[in-house]
Design a protein that fits this description.
Layout: H1 4-27, H2 35-51, E1 75-77, E2 87-88, H3 91-104, E3 111-117, E4 120-127, E5 130-136, E6 142-144, H4 147-150, E7 167-175, H5 178-190, H6 199-207, H7 212-216, E8 221-231, H8 239-248, E9 258-260, H9 263-276, E10 284-291, H10 294-300, E11 310-314, E12 319-331, E13 336-348, E14 351-357, H11 361-367, E15 374-378, E16 386-391, E17 415-417, E18 424-426, H12 432-443, H13 455-463, H14 478-481, H15 489-502, H16 507-513, H17 521-531, H18 534-539, H19 542-546, H20 552-564, H21 566-578, E19 600-603, H22 611-620, E20 635-638, H23 644-653, E21 657-658, H24 660-669
Parallel strand pairs: 2-11, 19-20, 20-21
Antiparallel strand pairs: 1-6, 3-9, 3-10, 4-5, 4-7, 7-8, 10-11, 12-13, 12-15, 13-14, 13-18, 15-16, 17-18
Helix pairs in contact: 1-2, 12-13, 16-17
């Protein structure tokens, strides 16, 4: 172990480094390291201070909450301090916290578990039921007055309802829903602005605007999780009772809060949400566990920084920093040229990442990442890792900006920026990368579902000359396959059986597999149902195709142009000769269509349906399901985390709004609930 002088030097260095990270995080909303790396620095400092208690000082980051208060806003002194939480990163650390509780109180009968929303802690004060003030946590004692900005958040009511204390302060987390974050970054990219790193930074930056109109445009929301100062009104025995009261007053409380009896149950709850965190419409980075009994909380008390009666179980990090070694370009099945980052391998989001997407030319420019930079890498669930942006130390001169290549890295053909679009593409249809990509796509699960015919075999068959286009797939034989690397008698027979079975796939699968520009599952289904046979789609004019419900002129022109190509027609004839199904679904025109003439828009997440399933249910009953609200909209179906613009427009136009139960009744009866 390091000696006292060594420990003192390291402690001083860590305090300075953590203080700078706190300044960037809390004051500038521009962190230079990931949460996990920051947590590691704090944990190391705690270890050193625990081993050398005589070196602990009141100004240490381990003894303080948050950061300094910004000079942009008036200070607000918190009547009840807003403390931060101690962290646990494993079940063992959670158990250790439970044991500490057991040494201080006789028994903890119940624990309240809440999702740890990744946003900005907020105090909202109501006087006689009316919204009076909102303040950030700041350093825990003094926060920033952001009243007018918080007033623009639709989830924060101006007036509470029912019986409530004369003065009530509610603590909560202001956050930006994922859909709003993605829409904000799209607007930033279109305007040539710098992209936001994550929803938490976006929420914090949006709240710290001097112009509240900017905050209002950012579609923020809030979940209330705690009472602060209360004057008058009822007393509560448990935290759960207080949350029920907060919800009854009209404030949003997260629906996933649970009260559990044992730490084992708490850990199961944590593991469940670690696995399902991306099922939500907002970001979480852990679970907060609290003693439910308020009297026990008083008995347990707090340290200088954190309450003893609560702890945050932190999830493994999904963001890390690493070095960007190079930016390269891949060519997809449509010719799209996608830039990607080659990275120094880093463990993030449960796996080691060495490659991450950069999306397109505009995204590289907006993120302003350059080979040699230290960058933030993000991985969310099964999503492909992406580079969020650079970490820019002040003393590190920038290298030259990366320039998008003008020639294809595979075939050396020209790369062309498509007019009016963000994509750059290789225009050589015979590019080997495109050919292999088209064949892999045709065989994929969403198209013809030929099991065992993936990326590796697509490249093998094209490079060996066995398959030039998708029509050649049906000419493969045992004689051609036996002897190829990786093929024996059993694997050959399995592949040929899968190819034979694909011939009976429904027409929508074939339309998807043909790789027609702009045609996805929904458009393929409409075309198959409307025309009933591939030949009729091939012979239709673009105007006739555009008349199909939900198709429109852009898709119609793409479909018509695809089938006008002699090259594509030749491939279609190969498929016909092989016996691939061209027949569409049988339609029963005499079946009742209770939603005929209705236009039903769906927004948000429904428990009983996927978005596609809800739209299909509407269409199957004769209705339309467009993507936007208009004067012609019959009703708007609203699930969890709905699009704010759709809901606002429906309200402005007087369009009926249905919850999930109302939607079910509409499907069953064909009538809007009264």
């Amino acid at each position: 172990m390091a000696g006292p002088m060594d420990a003192s030097d390291e402690i001083l260095a860590l305090r300075a480094e953590i203080a700078e990270h706190n300044r960037r995080y809390f004051e500038l909303d521009d962190p230079s390291v990931s949460d996990a790396e920051y947590d590691a620095l704090v944990r190391r400092l705690r270890e050193l201070e625990a081993a050398n208690p005589d070196l602990i000082t009141p100004d240490s980051p381990t003894q303080r909450v948050g950061g300094a208060v910004s000079s942009l806003f008036a200070p607000v002194v918190h009547q009840v301090p807003m403390m931060s939480l101690d962290n646990a990163f494993s079940f063992e650390e959670l158990e250790a916290w439970g044991q500490r509780l057991g040494r201080r109180v006789a028994e903890v009968a119940s624990l309240a578990c809440e999702l740890k929303i990744d946003g900005l802690a907020m105090s909202v004060r109501y006087e006689n039921g009316r919204f009076a003030q909102a303040a950030t946590r700041g350093d825990g004692r003094v926060g920033e007055d952001v009243t007018e900005n918080v007033r623009t958040i639709a989830a924060v009511p101006e007036q509470l309802v029912g019986d409530m204390p004369a003065v009530v302060e509610v603590r909560g987390e202001v956050y930006m829903p994922m859909a709003s974050f993605e829409a904000l970054n799209r607007r930033q990219a279109e305007a040539g602005g710098r992209l936001f790193a994550n929803p938490r930074n976006s929420a914090a930056g949006s709240l710290r605007q001097k112009d509240a109109r900017i905050t209002a445009s950012r579609d923020l929301s809030m979940f209330a999780y705690q009472l602060g100062a209360v004057e008058g009104g009822p007393g509560f025995r448990t935290h759960t009772e207080s949350l029920e009261a907060i919800a009854a007053w009209g404030l949003p409380v997260n629906p996933e809060i649970r009260t559990l009896g044992t730490l084992a149950e708490v850990y199961d709850y944590c593991r469940h949400w670690l696995e399902h965190r991306h099922d939500l419409g907002y970001e979480i980075d852990g679970v907060v566990v609290k003693v439910d009994d308020l009297a026990l909380r008083d008995e347990l008390g707090a340290t200088a920084k954190a309450p003893r009666w609560a702890i945050a179980f932190k999830f493994p990090p999904e963001e890390k920093t690493t070095k960007l070694l190079d930016i390269m370009v891949s060519i997809g099945r449509t010719g799209r040229a996608t830039p990607f980052a080659r990275l120094e391998p880093v463990f993030v989001g449960g796996s080691t990442v060495g490659v991450a997407t950069l999306h397109n030319q505009d995204q590289v420019r907006a993120k302003d990442v350059r080979p040699g930079d230290m960058v933030v890498v993000r991985k969310a669930g099964d999503v492909i890792p992406e580079v969020v942006g650079p970490v820019l130390p002040r003393d590190n001169p920038r290298r030259k900006p990366w320039v998008f290549p003008t020639t294809c890295p595979v075939c050396s053909g020209p790369l062309v920026r498509l007019e009016g679009e963000s994509d750059t593409a290789c225009v050589n249809v015979d590019c080997p990368a495109q050919r292999a990509g088209r064949i892999e796509h045709f065989c994929s699960r969403g198209a013809m579902d030929i099991e065992g015919f993936g990326e590796q075999r697509a490249h093998l068959f094209t490079s060996s000359g066995l398959v030039e286009d998708i029509g050649d797939i049906y000419t493969l034989t045992e004689e051609k396959l036996l002897g190829l690397e990786g093929f024996g008698a059993i694997s050959v027979r399995n592949l040929l059986d899968a190819i034979e079975a694909s011939k009976t796939k429904p027409l929508p699968n074939l339309l998807i597999g043909l790789n027609i520009r702009r045609v996805g599952p929904a458009a393929a289904d409409v075309l198959a149902r409307t025309f009933g046979h591939l030949d009729r789609i091939m012979d239709a004019s673009s105007a006739a195709i555009a008349e199909a419900e939900g198709i429109g002129p852009l898709i119609a022109e793409a479909v018509h142009a695809f089938f006008e190509s002699p090259r594509n027609r030749a491939v279609i004839e190969k498929l016909r000769a092989a016996g691939v199904n061209f027949q569409g679904p049988e339609t029963d025109d005499d079946s009742p269509k209770p939603l005929a003439g209705m236009s039903i828009v769906v927004t948000g997440t429904l428990e009983g349906w996927s978005r596609e399933g809800a739209e299909e249910a509407i269409k199957a009953l004769g209705g339309k399901s467009p993507g936007s609200v208009s004067k012609k909209t019959t009703a708007l179906v609203v699930g969890a985390e709905p699009g704010a613009s759709k809901l606002t427009k429906a309200t402005d136009l007087g369009v009926p709004v249905l919850d999930e139960a109302g939607f079910a009744r509409l499907l069953e009866t064909g009538e809007l609930p009264s």
